[in-house]
Fold each of these.
Amino acid sequence: MTCPWERRYAQRMQGMGSSVIRELLKLTQQPDIISFAGGLPAPEVFPVERFKQASQRVLETHGAQALQYSTTEGYLPLREYIVKKMCRYGIQANPANILITNGAQQALDIIGKILLDPGDVILTEQPTYLGALQAWRSYQADYVTVPIDEEGICLDERFVEALRAGPKFMYILPNFQNPAGVTLSLERRMKLVQIANHYGIPIVEDDPYGDLRYEGEHLPPLVVLDAEYQENQTPDCNGEGFYQGDVIYLGTFSKTLAPGLRLGWILAPENVIQKCVMAKQGMDLHTSSFTQMVAYEVAQDNFLDEHKTVIRQTYKERRDVMLAAMAEHFPLGVYWTRPEGGLFLWVTLPEWMDAAELLEKAIEYKVAFVPGLAFHPSSAKTGHNTCRLNFSNAQPDQIEEGIRRLGMVITMAMDEHKAKELMAV
Amino acid sequence: MTCPWERRYAQRMQGMGSSVIRELLKLTQQPDIISFAGGLPAPEVFPVERFKQASQRVLETHGAQALQYSTTEGYLPLREYIVKKMCRYGIQANPANILITNGAQQALDIIGKILLDPGDVILTEQPTYLGALQAWRSYQADYVTVPIDEEGICLDERFVEALRAGPKFMYILPNFQNPAGVTLSLERRMKLVQIANHYGIPIVEDDPYGDLRYEGEHLPPLVVLDAEYQENQTPDCNGEGFYQGDVIYLGTFSKTLAPGLRLGWILAPENVIQKCVMAKQGMDLHTSSFTQMVAYEVAQDNFLDEHKTVIRQTYKERRDVMLAAMAEHFPLGVYWTRPEGGLFLWVTLPEWMDAAELLEKAIEYKVAFVPGLAFHPSSAKTGHNTCRLNFSNAQPDQIEEGIRRLGMVITMAMDEHKAKELMAV
């Protein structure tokens, strides 16, 4: 007897399903595996004690409010806090420009809901964030992708070609991009904003790692450059909100505070936020009052700034250990990015190598990563020989050992390939 | 200069927007208004002290886990707890049948995502839950509605007529329905399950108030009756999961523990849950690890059972106060339901009266409710003379005073109407 539910699912579900990579990644959760596959923060740096105090204070002083329904927009003091925080980046916003979401992932879903009709095209970096592809697949979006190099998305003829597809918006991760770890240069940021304004194509700027820079200088977010650009172009645009620009900026507390809270935010022109609020109301009414109030309490007295210093030290060390180990253990012919911040770096294997096959072998040797194909829309015919490594979660000695094993597995694959070539000759 | 964003929104956003009722309801949030408009639990009964202890214990014993990313399915001990809880209702489930959601509202959104294509028809009670209409409007669903009476949805020729529209599923709130407060009788429950099976139309059973019965006998949920029905019909259906039936059951902690946590769940056949998990992954990765673990900790040692006794006492008293005050203050020609549980009752005004106009007047006298039109899909041409009253949130003396004012406002409107009729003669 076949299950009648199979005939009941919506068309959009056909695009979603178990992938080979997802099945492989389940294996990486075995406890004895050194996994570079996830995107998890280091649990050692979670400020557990501070959370204990904050939870007590919230429940003591606003217990009933923390446990009651609240507004869809989010806890006002937290939104005011975010406005102040963003102000330091040069973003002039007010709380009407902010919507609190369940992590930045929900922000992506909301953006899909308010902007995407089936068949709409999104321009993304190649590779790009897996979770965005997942979120927007359910809105039956199509993709055009543009390769990145060490300075981020390539604004050359390939970009111009992609624009011809008439994208609904561009999705850009400017800082320490997930998965590739590269950062968009200032020159390209300015050019991208000009193009967005010239063609009237909005930008969704996803910035989960902006606070986690370990070296080099802070670069202004696209939303700031856009505001500056718009001010010069249309000084009398609109008095409401902070700006009527073309950028939707996404932020999160997941990487600086704790992902288990599920707290992120959308910063956008006020009329866009109003649409987002309408959408979110039907999606889950609002984000947990309790977690919002606890996060606000934890962040008080500049705690978050001090805490970010600790995180940066920890992750910088782990990145350095990983880079040093790769230099030592990876064979010739393998290349990788050198991120100035964030959680990830990107490895390019020889063209003939298949990263998914390599992962199968790696799991035997108790080390794991994510094959690069996962970060490409299914329409992209590239990326089979790439992989993403996370350096924030494993401890330094584990990183060292994991990279040693991975180097060994890659070397073995290369040796085998060479042997086969010789046989064929 | 017009804002370019207006041209960018997805088609589904056209169905969403500010309504007259929504604008009116904003006025009901003034602090000096006695509001029967919301659906808020009584903050006096929140177990704040218990939450304080639970938060401490969670952070002390599993701090890093509570703050870290976790699985989309939800915290396993909480899912096991729900399985045990549901077992008392006669539902044989296992954790693979459960997905934790951000309140039952997210469950509605997920169901829309996995089941609804644009133009799909949903069969609902008339009136029905406003939040479900909001959630599914964004999937561009159509509705057929069937009136309810004191025994719930009417399974007569109007129901048969509605079935001809070929609904994708039926949406039923069997216990102390929101908004009308009525309960589906056992006879109709059994008939509904038979019909669902006969026509192969699944049921989405929304049961937020099932635990809040103040009098009368507990009635089995549709999911239990369906499982029993299926067992007789197809004994060898499938060994996996608890059943391969046609009901998706929605539960929540919002009414028994605290809505500010945003915790609900979906109970469904395992293959349906798998689709829900895929959808939720793209929507927000997972529900807050912290709130799930705190809720689990709070619920330990039968606390939730004891606590429900307190809630039931409090709400029963408030319901009784409201019913007594209505009997005293409402004029002849006004009718209302007498709910055996839940949070709401339903008032039917004379046919000529417009509840939205009445609300305007009521707000002047500092009392508020929700006009019944809000609980009808826009295609329904009925309900203008109805309203929903909440009795859980205001304190007894406020309920007494609010109903006195409301009775006065209704009486004035009726007197004015009579005077106009006399003038016209």
Note: The first strand of chain B starts at residue 34 and ends at 35.
Amino acid sequence: MKLMFSPTSPFVRRVRAAAAELGLADRISLEPIQVAPVRENDAYAAGINPLRKVPALVLDDGRTTLIDSTVICLYLDELAGGGRLLPCSGDERWEVLTRQAVALGMTDALVLSRYETALRPQALRWPEWAHDQEQRFWTGLGWFEERMAGAGAADAVPDLAQLALACCLGYADFRFPGFDWRGRAPVAAARYARLLQRPSLASTGPS
Amino acid sequence: MKLMFSPTSPFVRRVRAAAAELGLADRISLEPIQVAPVRENDAYAAGINPLRKVPALVLDDGRTTLIDSTVICLYLDELAGGGRLLPCSGDERWEVLTRQAVALGMTDALVLSRYETALRPQALRWPEWAHDQEQRFWTGLGWFEERMAGAGAADAVPDLAQLALACCLGYADFRFPGFDWRGRAPVAAARYARLLQRPSLASTGPS
């Protein structure tokens, strides 16, 4: 399978981490793709993903493309037998999916803030917008902090929500080094430090 | 169950349409919520959704909140027996999920363009950004147009991807009345006209 890849994307990272946790990393090759707002990439839009985003996964049949990091993660989980990164049923399933949605929303918000403060021409920046997006990260982080107890078992396989949050926090460290999120969320920080020791995350950090 | 609601949100609409298709609409009450970027809503952020977005669904136990329209749609589908709006397994499952992701990405792009052209102070608008987002709508629409054949059976229950696309196109009509999307995508237009006759969509249009 071919994964449309960018080394800085937190969404690509979570797919790579999921594949590593599931033992599928060696079945996936990485295809570097340049995508960014206001830059054209007609070939990618026409051939792979009309939204011009990464990740996308081209399956081994060469004609099927899965779009969206969540869809790809669910597919990989099923390929590995199912139920490993997301419970198949019960309250726990909806809990993990909701946590994942919050972590992805936090990540989206940071990416929008980054576009505002780095990509947009300086004269057109709207500080309130960037602040609003960053606030979503902070309230999301507080929401997680309230729901976490302790640093988690060292050897438990992380679920899709934990992977999504770890990739969000890694992106915060990468693009917002001034954020003292560890000071504001010590439980999440301890959990993150533990997770970062796993090869799935240690080997996929943004660069 | 209580659905956090805005009458203009295409994401809320698709949850309402899904509930109607599943025969669950009368188990859901609507709770109007005011959310928009750069407007605070601390009570909502603290009590319901730290991302300050709609929809969110508060379950009848009063303490469980599901966040994200996709998570809510999947939950309602399971509540109705499962497999009605999304195939439970097989290639068709990944196909529908990928189509849904493209439709949601198109909707996200239109919402970002709307924020750029209506919410942001005029002096800070970046036409290239709005254009880029709108292009994602158009390339997504072209992607769907290529994959559709005919107007679809009149009585078939639409899947999650069809509902998401219909709500996206309804949002385009509502916020971008100058878009001639029907001229550029006649097959999608015929399918949409057929879908709009269903009570689930006819009764939930933006206003």
Note: The domain at 2-79 of chain B is CATH 3.40.30.10 (Glutaredoxin).
